[in-house]
């Protein structure tokens, strides 16, 4: 298929008629969404197959845990520095073409890595270069694929699409991790990279045949805005994207809620690991049970979140505050059994909140701004992911595992509650009736 047919907007698919549905699977009524979900499952399985063996490969090549951590940082660094430029590119270029090309490029990187591993030519320098290239491509691929998936369903079904995507991610993760051991055992480490390359090419081959639906808050509006502006003015600039985000109270509030939750909560693989193996006197097996319950809660939450039709920042904030309070109770758990009872609703609430927040982020901005908004969000999220664990680790050093969970939960709930009260105070304007004005004047 030619690039011109890739870039031309396909005719929209008709939206199924009938009463509004709250089924978590309603996004799968659309044929393109079903194909996109299959493609994402294949891609996630390949990615997790590679990730399962990647750190061991880096450790084997370098013999250094520090080098392993450095390779992860090198891959994450582009998201911090140039995500806004990647988002601007997504707004400028046809979305299907952008997603197809970025997936093909990621597949090429995976094939190059597989070849170098097979020939025993992969050294530290080439490893870091490949990690950096992957990170750069991902700054475009991430928002392009996220927004392309939303184009395949109407606006009210976007939460379902996001929830289905979360389930596909979890299923791909489990499948990829299981296949990694078999693949490496029979075919070697290079085969895991080659399989990931094939998974990217599968997505790239499916993308040209996807069709947006009528009523989708999709890319057609973005193309119209770009055509009106000529594709070169401030409407398509990175600076305009940053200014739009800064002027949007709803997005700033979402960033605040997500940030405080990311720093003082959610890092349960750290806090709960210390709580289980420390004060609760459990072992690795006990923490494995806790991790399993967290995963199950995440799946249940993704299904519940997919039922949402009109998510809002208020819903995200309420769920995040509830999660903070549940975290406080979990921190006071006297036994592993009580902790397990608390962990399940914590994971469910977190997953529903994530689905609602992602839906707001991807539907609130106008279509021609969404790539840049996701680019700004990518930079902000990288700050949280890099800064959250050290901050939480310091809190644990000062207050212990229980203290960190309790204090973190109170900070989350308190900050969100204070923000809500402040917003209510700013938006509540006392109104004086004309009769009262006359009486006062008299």
What does this structure look like?
By secondary structure, the chain is mainly α. The chain has 16 helices and no strands. 45% of the residues are buried.
Q: Measured on Cα atoms, how large is the radius of gyration?
A: 23 Å
Overall average pLDDT: 84
What's the total helix number? 16
Multimerization state:
single chain
Structural topology:
Elements: H1 3-7, H2 31-62, H3 65-92, H4 95-118, H5 124-151, H6 158-187, H7 189-206, H8 219-229, H9 238-247, H10 249-264, H11 268-277, H12 284-305, H13 313-331, H14 336-363, H15 370-427, H16 434-441
Helix pairs in contact: 2-3, 2-6, 2-7, 3-5, 3-15, 4-5, 4-7, 5-15, 6-7, 6-12, 6-14, 10-13, 10-15, 11-12, 11-15, 12-14, 13-14, 13-15
Short key terms for the protein model shown above:
16 helices, 442 residues, disordered C terminus, globular
Give a brief description.
By secondary structure, this protein is mostly helical.
């Amino acid at each position: 298929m030619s690039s011109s047919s890739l870039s031309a907007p396909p005719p929209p698919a008709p939206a199924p008629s009938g009463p509004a549905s709250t089924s978590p699977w309603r996004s799968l009524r659309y044929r393109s969404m079903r194909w996109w979900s299959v493609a994402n499952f294949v891609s996630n399985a390949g990615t997790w197959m590679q990730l399962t063996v990647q750190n061991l490969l880096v450790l084997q090549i370098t013999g250094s845990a520090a080098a392993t951590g450095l390779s992860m940082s090198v891959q994450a660094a582009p998201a911090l520095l140039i995500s806004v430029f990647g988002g601007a590119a997504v707004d400028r270029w046809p979305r299907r073409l952008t997603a197809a090309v970025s997936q093909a490029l990621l597949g090429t990187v995976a094939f190059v890595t597989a070849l170098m591993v097979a020939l025993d030519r992969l050294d530290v320098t080439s490893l870091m270069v490949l990690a950096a290239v992957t990170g750069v491509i991902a700054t475009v691929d991430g928002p392009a694929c996220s927004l392309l998936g939303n184009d395949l369903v109407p606006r009210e079904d976007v939460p379902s699409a996001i929830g289905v995507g979360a389930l596909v991610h979890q299923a791909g993760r489990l499948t990829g991790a299981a296949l990694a051991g078999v693949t490496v055992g029979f075919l070697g480490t290079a085969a895991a990279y080659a399989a990931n390359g094939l998974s990217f090419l599968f997505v790239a081959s499916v993308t040209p045949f996807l069709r947006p639906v009528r009523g989708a808050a999709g890319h057609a509006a973005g193309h119209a805005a770009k055509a009106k502006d000529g594709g070169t003015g401030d409407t398509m600039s990175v600076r305009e994207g940053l200014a739009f985000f800064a002027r949007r109270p709803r997005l700033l509030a979402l960033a605040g809620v997500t940030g405080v939750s990311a720093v003082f909560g959610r890092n349960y693989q750290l806090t709960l690991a210390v709580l289980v193996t420390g004060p609760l006197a459990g072992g690795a097996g006990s923490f494995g049970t806790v991790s399993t319950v967290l995963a199950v809660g995440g799946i249940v939450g993704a299904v519940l979140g997919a039922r949402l039709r009109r998510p809002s920042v208020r819903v995200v904030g309420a769920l995040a505050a509830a999660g903070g309070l549940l975290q406080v109770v979990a921190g006071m758990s006297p036994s592993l059994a009580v902790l397990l009872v608390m962990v399940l609703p914590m994971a469910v609430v977190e997953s529903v909140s994530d689905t609602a927040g992602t839906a707001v982020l991807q539907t609130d901005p106008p279509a021609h701004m969404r790539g840049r908004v996701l680019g700004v969000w990518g930079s902000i999220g990288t700050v949280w992911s890099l800064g959250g664990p050290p901050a939480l680790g310091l809190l644990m050093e000062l207050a212990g595992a229980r203290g960190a969970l309790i204090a973190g939960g109170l900070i989350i709930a308190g900050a969100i509650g204070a923000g809500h009260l402040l917003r209510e105070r700013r938006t509540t304007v006392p109104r004086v009736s004309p009769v009262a004005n006359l009486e006062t004047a008299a």
